[in-house]
Amino acid sequence: MVVMKNDSNVPPRTPPYGLRIPPDLKARIKAAALDSGRSMNAEIVHTLEKTYPVPVNFELQERFFQQVLDNARVLYKESNIAGLDAFKHRLVQIISEVSEAEENMGVSPDKESPPARERAGGLARAMLQREAVSRELKNGS
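Given the sequence above, the corresponding structure tokens read:
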């Protein structure tokens, strides 16, 4: 007897949804489900969740990044070199942890959507600009 793990995000009382699937596709789903140890339903839900992820709240992210940058500005203005070093070290750790999580999830930078790349590029440019301003502040220019 094969034990299937039910790791789908579907609550147990979700009403069924009838779906007509061509036999060859159904066979591929069944094979994938067996390989992953999931039911066919859980396999379908898993695949759909990967294809249609929950939207990201960019406003919340922007507020968070703004707080991070504000904290960095305070450390620069106070000339708190030890604090800045610890701050940078922690940011590097966080970036490393995010990259590791992406690898574990099978996320490839090539699969990233163009708008996300543009946002990341914009964020990187903003951080570089702020770093330049911070250097100016630090040097007293």
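The radius of gyration is 23 Å. Try to locate this feature in the token string yourself.
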